[in-house]
Amino acid sequence: MVLMALFTTFITTPLVTAIYKPARKSDAIYKHRTIERKDSTTQLRILACFHSSRNIPSLINLIEASRGTKRQESLCVYAMHLMEMSERPSTILLVHKARKNGMPFWNKTLRSGSDKVVVAFEAFERLSRVSVRPMTAISDLSDIHKDICASAERKRAAILILPFHKHQRFDGGLETTGPELRNVNRKVLENAPCSVGILVDRGLGGATHVSASYLSSSVTVLFFGGRDDREALSYGARMTEHPGIRLTVLRFCASEHAPIGEITAIDMNTDSLSERMSSDDRFIDEFRKKTQNDKAILYEERVVTSKEDTMSAIRAFSRSNIFLVGRSPEGPAALFLVTERAECPELGPVGSLLTSPSFPISASVLVVQQYNGSSNITEETCLPSISEGT
Questions:
Q1: 200 pLDDT exceeds 80?
Q2: What residues contact 32, with CB distance under 8 A and at least 6 apart?
Q3: Which residue segments constitute the domains of the chain, with CATH numbers given?
């Protein structure tokens, strides 16, 4: 017994060191916290959250459009079902079980067919090459943002997609699901360890999953400038790997001397001669060089002098299936949209315009905020700023 006690004492430390990987080592390999990166061939990890089965069809169609077909295992998706903790004892037991090892709760007992959520993602995984791992987070809505951020950190996600707190009615308008869900999105934007996208669902792809052979979607990126717009365009560039995706990049420029509403077609084969370019100019120039031979990508620049010009340019692409926009656009052209306080600051000025009842579009909107290592959900950051070189 004494020898066994000594053996157990001395063997415990090396065994624990070999089995348990410290958190600081896992953080060191968490390199890709954004979609914008130097090596675009690396795997893209997405943590997609949803509240109910209403969000599943559009979420699966968004994943289908994001997976591409050129690379094997280029996309890994973690689908997290957000459930509010009630006062029933069964739910409390599930929460305790989920918190024993600090991992999200995996409800394996519901995979027999009663859980439509798990069945939907399992069926999509079999039909595609995407690794989809369903998860369930059961917590109080005041603290569920901690589970979301912790899961994104643990899974090393590059972007975290959240559902908007409003859903579409039968007449096409948006109806508030719950004010507490809006607070969840705001807290996640504050503490997220990666980029965040808020999906305003307006029936993306219909009510059912569209297979790869039948997928045909039009994606429009509204580019004003700034890190958030670059992140949105990076996501759009990923989508173009799918043969059924047509991407339109509309860049807005402000000029007092240019004619109103003038559209300038860009020659994709020309190289910029300027040596001093801003971050946006360098990003756009690199994007044009990579996609100059891709016929599924259309790039245009529109010179605007007022909010009406900007809205008119956006209306020309109202038949798009989804708009990708940045939450905090920068540059002089974005200032035309900041005329009054937005109803939903978490969407930014462009996202608020696209979801406004007075704006006649029926496309879904994905508002993207790029990770920059600091929380920026204050109302001041929702206003665009003028950066040098734009």
A1: yes
A2: 42, 44, 45, 156, 158
A3: 31-200 (3.40.50.620), 217-382 (3.40.50.620)
